[in-house]
Design brief:
- The complex is a heterodimer of chains A (276) and B (310).
- Chain A has one domain.
- Chain A is 68% helix and 0% strand.
- In chain B, the strands form three sheets. Chain B has a six-stranded mixed β-sheet, with helices on both faces. Chain B has a four-stranded antiparallel β-sheet with strand order 2-1-4-5.
- In chain B, helix 6 links the parallel strand 7 and strand 8.
- Chain B is built from twelve helices and 13 strands.
- Chain B has two domains: 221 residues, Rossmann fold (3-Layer(aba) Sandwich), CATH 3.40.50; 84 residues, no CATH class.
- The chains are: A mainly alpha (276), B alpha/beta (310).
- The interface between A and B is large, with 47 and 55 residues.
- Chain A: It is found in: Cell membrane; Membrane.
- Chain A: It holds the Pfam family ABC2_membrane.
Chain lengths: 276, 310
C-alpha cells in the first residue's frame, strides 16, 4: 500500500513545477484495481453471466436427451459429450471479454489510463483474470448439472485437478485471444460477432461426434484444430480414454495461442489507443 | 515566469494528411491557455502529443521540464487529461470511478475514499454518488470526468473541448470550476472551438489553423489585430444583412454608412444600422480564412457556422 500520498499539498500549493507529482504506483496495485473494476462490471451484468451458464447447460441437455439416444442407444453418450460441453462453455464466456475490451477502447476511458503512469497491459489483465474466474465457475456449474443427468466419470482427485488445470489454461488462451480480438474490433457490436467462432469450432472437432465419422476432407481440419486435442485430454482425465499425444499437443496449442495473442494484443494496444 | 509547457516544431502526419506542420507553443505556469481552432485543425492531436498519447514525427515538447518523447512516464506524473469523449466508466458508480482513479494514482484505500467524498461534494455530485454513471446527464458526466482528473493535484491539466455539447448552464458551471483551478495554481491547457469560451476563460489564446499557430496573444491583443469598429446593418428581425469593417476613424465610419445608404440593402423596410467593436469571431475569420477581415466573402458568413463547417 502506498503511503506517500499523505504528503500531497493542500489546494493552496504554489503554482508551477514545484507542485506535487502524481505518486508512483507500486507493485500490482494497478492490476488489482482493474480486476476489481472488471469484477464490478461483471456483477452489474447478471444476464450475460446467466447466459454463459444457461446456454451450455441447455446444449448439454439437448445433446444428451434428444440426440444422445440416436447417437448411442446404450445411453453412454452423456459420458462422451460432457468434455465437449465443458469446452464450449469455457470458450463461450471468453467472447464477452472481446466486448468489454472493445468497449474500453471505444470510450474515452482508455486515454485516461494511457496518460497515467501505469503498465499498459494492466487494464487488459483485469478483464482476462475476471473472465477466467467466471468461466471456471460456469464450468463447475456445467459439470454439476452433468453429474445430475447421469455423467459418470471415473476420475481420481488428481484427474479432476489436472482436468481443471487444462480447462483453466484453455480459458486463459481463448480469453487472451478474445481480448486481442476486442482490441482489433471496430466496435463492441463487431467484437460480439466474433464470438460465433467459439460456438462453431467445437462442432468441427471431436466434441460431439468422433472425428472418424466425418467426411475425408473435413477430418484433417477437425483433427488439427486446437479444440480436438484439448477435448481428448479432458476426456482422458475424466473417462479414461487413451491420452496419446493429445496432452502435449493441447498444451502447445494453448501456450501458442497465449503467446500469439499477447504479442498481437500488445501491438494492437500501442497502435490503436492514441490514434485519434 | 516559468513555462509549464513548451513545444517546438511539432509535426505529425496520419497517412497522407499532415495534421501538424511545425507547431510552436509556450504556456506559462499557472495560466489558462486556450488552443482555438475549427474541427480538424489538429487540436486533439496537439493534446495527444503533449499528453504522450501520440508520438510526434518531429519536434520536441516538454511538460514541466519532462520531455514527452524521452520521459513519457515523467510527463504522465505531471498531467491529467479530460478528453473529448467522457473518460468515465459507465458501469461503475460515481464514487467507484473516483476511488478507482485515486487508487490508480497511488492513493491508499482510505485516502482514495476521502478524496472521492471531497470531490463529490465540490462538484455537487453527492446525491448521485452511488448511481451508475451511465444514468448521468451530460453535464454531470462532464463534472465527474473533470473531478477524476483532480484526484491528485497535478501541475498541468489538459482539457480537450471540455464544454462541447453542454447546455449554457452546465458550461458556465464548468467555466467557474476551471477558473478556480487556475486560481489555485494549476496550469490549464484547453482546446475549444467556441470563441466565447476562449474569450471568457483564457489568459492567452492561440489560433490553430492548418497545423500551425496562426496567431497568439491575449483576447484583447488578438482583437486589436483586426482593427476598429464594424458598421453593421440588420433587418427588422435583427438578422445581419451586411457588415463593413472600418479602422474606427470618423471618415471610415461615414464612408461605410454612405455605402450602406447607397446600396439597396439600406432601403429594406425596418433595417437598422449599428456599430460594434470587433469580436474574437472577426479575429478568427480574419486569420483562418486567410483573407482580410470583413472581405466580401467572409463578412456575410456568420462565424458560428464557419466553425462548424470548416
Amino acid at each position: 500500500m502506498t503511503t506517500n500520498a499523505t504528503t500531497l499539498p493542500a489546494r493552496t500549493a504554489p503554482a508551477g513545477p514545484t507542485r506535487a507529482l502524481r505518486p508512483r504506483i507500486r507493485g500490482t496495485v494497478a492490476e488489482r484495481v482493474f480486476v476489481t473494476r472488471s469484477l464490478l462490471q461483471e456483477l452489474r451484468d447478471p444476464e450475460s453471466m446467466l447466459m454463459a451458464v444457461v446456454l451450455p447447460v441447455m446444449l448439454m441437455l439437448m445433446f444428451t436427451f434428444i440426440f444422445g439416444q440416436a447417437i448411442d442407444p446404450s445411453g453412454g453418450y452423456v459420458d462422451y459429450v460432457v468434455p465437449g460441453i465443458i469446452l464450449l462453455c469455457a470458450g463461450f464466456g471468453a467472447s464477452s471479454t472481446a466486448v468489454s475490451v472493445s468497449r474500453d477502447m471505444t470510450t474515452g476511458i482508455i486515454e485516461r489510463f494511457r496518460t497515467m503512469p501505469l503498465r499498459s497491459g494492466a487494464v487488459l489483465t483485469g478483464h482476462v483474470v475476471v473472465s477466467v474466474i467466471r468461466n471456471l465457475f460456469a464450468t463447475a456449474v456445467v459439470i454439476a448439472v452433468a453429474l445430475l443427468v447421469g455423467f459418470r466419470p471415473d476420475a481420481t482427485a488428481l484427474d479432476w485437478l489436472a482436468m481443471f488445470g487444462v480447462v483453466a489454461l484453455y480459458i486463459l488462451a481463448i480469453t487472451y485471444l478474445f481480448a486481442a480480438i476486442g482490441l482489433a474490433a471496430s466496435s463492441p457490436e463487431a467484437a460480439n460477432g466474433y464470438g460465433f467462432i467459439l460456438l462453431f469450432l467445437p462442432y468441427v472437432s471431436s466434441a460431439f461426434v468422433p472425428v472418424e465419422t466425418m467426411p475425408d476432407w473435413l477430418r484433417p481440419i477437425a483433427e488439427h484444430q486446437p479444440i480436438t486435442p484439448v477435448i481428448e485430454t479432458i476426456r482422458s482425465f475424466l473417462v479414461g480414454t487413451p491420452l496419446g499425444s493429445s496432452g502435449w499437443v493441447a498444451l502447445a496449442w494453448c501456450l501458442g495461442i497465449v503467446l500469439a495473442a499477447a504479442v498481437w494484443g500488445a501491438w494492437l494496444f500501442r497502435r490503436k489507443a492514441g490514434r485519434r | 515566469m516559468e513555462l509549464a509547457i513548451q513545444a517546438r516544431g511539432l509535426r505529425k502526419r496520419f497517412g497522407s494528411t499532415e495534421v501538424l506542420a511545425g507547431l510552436d507553443l509556450a504556456v506559462q505556469a499557472g495560466s489558462i491557455f486556450a488552443l482555438l481552432g475549427p474541427n480538424g485543425a489538429g487540436k486533439t492531436t496537439t493534446i495527444g502529443i503533449l499528453t504522450t498519447l501520440v508520438r510526434p514525427d518531429a519536434g520536441a515538447a516538454t511538460v514541466v521540464g519532462a520531455d514527452v518523447r524521452t520521459a513519457p512516464a515523467e510527463v504522465q506524473r505531471r498531467i491529467a487529461l479530460t478528453g473529448q469523449s467522457a473518460a468515465v466508466d459507465g458501469e461503475l458508480t460515481a464514487i467507484e470511478n473516483l476511488v478507482m482513479l485515486g487508487r490508480l494514482s497511488g492513493l491508499g484505500r482510505r485516502q482514495a475514499r476521502a478524496k472521492a467524498a471531497e470531490l463529490l461534494a465540490r462538484f455537487e455530485l453527492e446525491g448521485a454518488a452511488k448511481r451508475r454513471v451511465s444514468t448521468f446527464s451530460g453535464g454531470m458526466r462532464r463534472r465527474l470526468d473533470l473531478s477524476l482528473s483532480l484526484v491528485v493535484d497535478v501541475p498541468v491539466l489538459f482539457l480537450d473541448e471540455p464544454t462541447t455539447g453542454l447546455d449554457t448552464r452546465s458550461r458556465q458551471e464548468l467555466w467557474a470550476i476551471i477558473r478556480s483551478l487556475a486560481d489555485a495554481g494549476t496550469t490549464v491547457f484547453l482546446t475549444t472551438q467556441y470563441l466565447e469560451e476562449a474569450d471568457r476563460l483564457a489568459d492567452r489564446i492561440a489560433v490553430l489553423d492548418r497545423g500551425t499557430i496562426a496567431a497568439e496573444g491575449t483576447a484583447a491583443e488578438l482583437k486589436a489585430r483586426v482593427g476598429g469598429e464594424f458598421v453593421e446593418l440588420r433587418d427588422a428581425d435583427g438578422e445581419l444583412l451586411r457588415e463593413i469593417p472600418t479602422d474606427g476613424s470618423v471618415h471610415a465610419l461615414r464612408g461605410a454608412i454612405d455605402e450602406l445608404d447607397r446600396s439597396e440593402l439600406g432601403a429594406v423596410p425596418g433595417a437598422r444600422i449599428g456599430i460594434r467593436r470587433p469580436s474574437l469571431d472577426d479575429v478568427f475569420l480574419a486569420i483562418t480564412a486567410g483573407g482580410t477581415p470583413g472581405s466580401p466573402g467572409s463578412s456575410a458568413v456568420r462565424s458560428g457556422e464557419l466553425l462548424e463547417t470548416n
